[in-house]
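TL;DR need structure tokens for one chain.
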Amino acid sequence: MRFVSTRIAAGLCGGMVLAMSVPASAAVDAKLLEMLKANGSISPAQYAELQAELSKDQQAQQQAVSQQVKKEDLSAFEKKVAWASKTQFKGDVRVRQETVKIDGESNNGADKNRQRIRARLGAYSEINPQVDTGIRIATGGGDDARSTNQDLNGYFDKKQIWLDQAYIDFHPKAVENLHLIGGKMVQPWVSMGDVIWDSDINPEGLAATYKYPLGGKTELFGSAGYYTLKDNVDGEGVQFSHDLRLYAGQLGARFAPTDNLKVTLGGSLYTYDNGSDSRCPTTGAVTTPCALAVNGNSTSDFRLYEGFGQIDISGLPVPLTLYGQYVLNNGTSSDQDTAWLTGFKTRLYVFNLDYNYRDVQRNAVVGAFTDSDFANGTTGSRGHKFKVGYDIDKNFAVGATYYMADADYASRTQTDAKTNTLQLDVEAKF
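>> reply
TL;DR here they are.
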């Protein structure tokens, strides 16, 4: 500290003033104060006052040193746990009562009256400003890509946990809104219905997504992806040409003609290579799904063209969303090659409502990936979906969903059968 003040300067001679005009340690300042007292340069009152000031300065210095040490220690600790501040944990638990009724089905057939649970837990972290990663585990009664539900059955046995997501998302600063994703990922494309893709499916491969703002309330969006479904599907080699592959591409736009109107329009292409070699094995391990052409399909050739749209309308007594999709399988010679869905969403008082109607011809979409709940998860079906939800509290809700369908291939034993499904859910998120 600099032991200089107006009071001290008044009590010092010229030499002393010069000596005290330079910085000194607290010990030196204390010794100098004693010398001033001894030679009578300051009065007892001045001595007491200066000693009090010196003591205060010493305490302030010690406190500053202590704070600096704590700051350095905290900085080192923060560096060690920096990842934690950039990591989010998200999850949900759902308990479901499900009843499936297929007309004409025997009691021990595809009819179901069961209780199910779903539990998912994910960790999503920012590795650096350009890289994110995500890992999620989930329940499931098997390796079915379309379901993370687990039946409450088996004498209280432990339930299976599967790797549901594991991906790296690179979004370079040099190209804003570009994401390059690799691994088992969230569906990178926009969906306005579940005719093509069950919402539980997480594709595996490489994908790129991009958004381009055009100014105002308009933006373009798009995605492209390469996904391997089965290595060496034809058994003739290890080259990529022998793999069952999916190429996906999508382009669309979002715009707002008015403050109360938002519109989303787009189109998609999903094309499969070597689909004709995709079939369920007769021996050995069998996965779910085990082939593309299942659940009602009679073709293995798929090249799907999709058009989709959504209109969000505000300013009405209740908010209203209209949505729909149309699908054509241009890869098959079958005349049962189209599917469409149209519906609406709204909120009435405290209830969230969702309704849609769909008509899915037998070979319009891939039976392995279409919605697993509608028509017992089969193509060649048409009918209604009614869903109502109620938020009891933050992140805690109940809901009911009813599927009323006519299914051409409802089960292995029943064709042209009414297939109705009721789901009652309680869900908590965190």
